[in-house]
Specification:
438 residues, alpha/beta, Aldehyde Dehydrogenase, Chain A, domain 1, Aldehyde Dehydrogenase, Chain A, domain 2, 14 helices, 18 strands, 41% helix, binds nicotinamide-adenine-dinucleotide
């Protein structure tokens, strides 16, 4: 189709809706074909995607593969392996008054035309993993990459139409004006990943059309470190989860809660852990990412004097580099504790023990993730029972979201709804109740 100038959001949505109405996206064969094409896009364009992710965030090729490209390929493979099973209608027992010949079941219907709005921190994964679910559920999709990761946005806008069915999948690039224009249209679902301020804008716009939303938001994800753990192991895992992508990970441990004696021993362990990951000069490590832009660089450097610097504390604005930083003696009301850090700064806040840590968590917004490092079953169970968070990780940060059979999403301020694997099918389908009486 030839268009004079870029297609307007209303025209994109109308075109995809017309496609959806033909039934083209519904057969499972179309869905799996699209997933295979998306898989081919990812495996055939590794170097282009890696270069874009390096340009936007300084991600190494290995990290780009592990956390973006390979991650999405695994999500596709898991979906292809199980899709037929997930889509199978589920029979429901029928009450006697309807007669023995009546049957009932639920069937998964695609919703229609859905919008996926992605953030900049994992700009490929967080656009494409929801798209996998939307396509697997038989929808037409408008994908809006983040303008703050311009290289990735541009490479995906170029490649997606080459691989996927352009009558059913469209990419709209742009920032606030373009997203605002899209949100004025009627979608059948809006899937947004980003911050709570924009999450509210998305939900308000969707409310005009009674469109359901999934909001994948963030917040401060705490990590409690008990006194009975092996601190070198814990420090290595904390640092690995915190400093991946220079701390710009929605489920990164935001801050550490521990008692004063454990804190004193954890500090040198974290110094060793940072050195183990990135050497003595992380600025020279090819494995260490950069801050997305100057605005976030300035915001983050403004947080560096919120405590005593244990390691790091330095930066280079021209390189958008901030050293992996650990801050100790951080007061609960310090600036670094007032907002989601979303950068390579790990504050340690001391509490008397698990009781106070649980209160500390419950006094604040429900986090996207909570991490508990404890050898005690009783303590682990207490955190599980007495706190609320999107996900809970015992002994290992971030990893829960790589388990394809677990739902990924927040609760309260950290979001609503979830996805990954079969939960994406739930999110992007309507469960239709069907009764049949001969
Ligand atoms: P961002 O600035 O890239 O914004 C996300 C999207 O919202 C973009 O596509 C952008 O164009 C759009 N947008 C921005 N302002 C808008 C407006 N006024 N109206 C309409 N659309 C608008 O990303 P961000 O919000 O800076 O991302 C970081 C946040 O995302 C953090 O809070 C992080 O924790 C959260 N996050 C959550 C998850 C998750 O899965 N739960 C994953 C990654 C990031």
């Amino acid at each position: 189709m030839n268009h004079p100038g870029p297609e307007q959001p209303a025209d994109v949505v109308a075109r995809l809706r017309a496609t959806f109405r033909t039934g083209r996206t519904k057969p499972v064969e179309w869905r799996t074909a699209q997933l295979h094409r998306l898989r081919a896009l990812l495996t055939e364009n590794g170097p282009d995607l890696e270069a874009a992710l390096h340009a936007d965030l300084g991600k190494s090729a290995a990290e780009a593969q592990r956390t973006e490209i390979g991650f999405t390929v695994r999500e596709i493979d898991h979906t292809l392996d199980h899709l037929a099973d997930w889509l199978r209608p589920e029979p429901a027992p029928v009450p006697a008054h309807l007669g023995a010949d009546a049957t009932a079941w639920t069937q998964y219907d695609p919703l229609g035309v859905v919008l996926v709005v992605a953030p900049w921190n994992y700009p490929a994964q967080l656009l494409l993993a929801p798209v996998v679910g939307a396509l697997a559920a038989g929808n037409a999709v408008v994908a809006k990459p983040s303008e703050l990761a311009p290289a990735t946005s541009s490479v995906l806008a170029r490649l997606l139409p080459r691989y996927l069915d352009t009558e059913a999948v469209a990419v709209v690039e742009g920032g606030v004006p373009e997203t605002t224009a899209l949100l004025a249209e009627r979608f059948d679902h809006v899937f947004y990943t980003g911050n709570g301020t924009v999450g509210r804008i998305v939900m308000r716009a969707a409310a005009e059309h009674l469109t359901p939303v999934t909001l994948e938001l963030g917040g401060k994800s705490p990590a409690f470190v008990d006194r009975d753990v092996d601190l070198d192991v814990v420090a290595a895992r904390l640092a690995g989860g915190k400093f991946l992508n220079a701390g710009q990970t929605c489920v990164a441990p935001d801050y550490v809660l521990t008692d004063p004696e454990t804190a004193a021993a954890l500090e040198p362990a974290l110094v060793r852990a940072v050195e183990g990951l990135y050497g003595t000069d992380p600025a020279r490590s090819a494995e260490y990412a950069r801050i997305v832009n100057e605005r976030h660089y300035d915001r983050l450097t403004g947080l560096l004097d919120s405590g005593r610097v244990v390691v790091g504390g330095t930066g280079d604005r021209s390189e958008k580099y901030i050293a992996p930083t650990v801050l100790a003696d951080v007061a609960p009301e310090a600036p670094v504790m007032r907002e989601e850090i979303f950068g390579p700064i790990l504050p340690i806040v001391t509490v008397s023990g698990p009781d106070e840590a649980i209160d500390f968590v419950n006094d604040r917004d429900k986090p996207l993730a909570l991490y508990v490092f404890s050898e005690s079953d009783a303590t682990r169970e207490r955190f599980a029972a007495e706190t609320s968070s999107g996900g809970l990780g015992h002994g290992l940060p971030l990893a829960h979201l790589t388990v394809s059979d677990l739902p990924f999403g927040g609760v309260g301020e950290s979001g609503m709804g979830n996805y990954h694997g079969r939960y994406s099918i739930e999110t992007f389908s309507h469960r239709k109740a069907v009764l049949k009486k001969p």
